[in-house]
Amino acid sequence: MTANRFETDLIHRVWEFLEKCFDGFSVKVYRPVKRRATGRIKDGTLRMQTGKLQEKCLTQKSILHFRSSGLEYGCVEAGLSSDLNDTKAINEGRFKLPRTMKDIFNKLVLESPSAIGEIKVGGFLMTGLQLTAYILDSPAGKVCRITKAGPC
Predict the structure, then answer these.
(1) Residue 35 domain-assigned?
(2) Hey, which end of the chain has fewer CB within 10 Å, N or C?
């Protein structure tokens, strides 16, 4: 890919099948709307443009999210470089994506605490032309584990 390409171009041109493979299911793929903060961060809260007070978010929005019945079940991160040792690939694959998956997992546990052992959150990391799939779960209900399949 050339230097003037963006991550969204990569998703639209190369990884488009990832969005389309959920077409026949109740799971919908969407791109989160980025919100800008207005005002200052004060006492661990942040006033968003919607006017509601939100807790300070420690993770950023991913490029794609998977949603069904109003709940998120997975996310996608992407980078242009195919170099697995690239700083951005390391940050997104080892920090940002797992943290976002853990946030999604925690929201699902709040919705159904008794099903903590059966909840699984999916994630994909696209680095250039390489795809890595991740699954986050908590089989014993105490500690989360991440299983990955792919080159990263």
Answers:
(1) no
(2) N
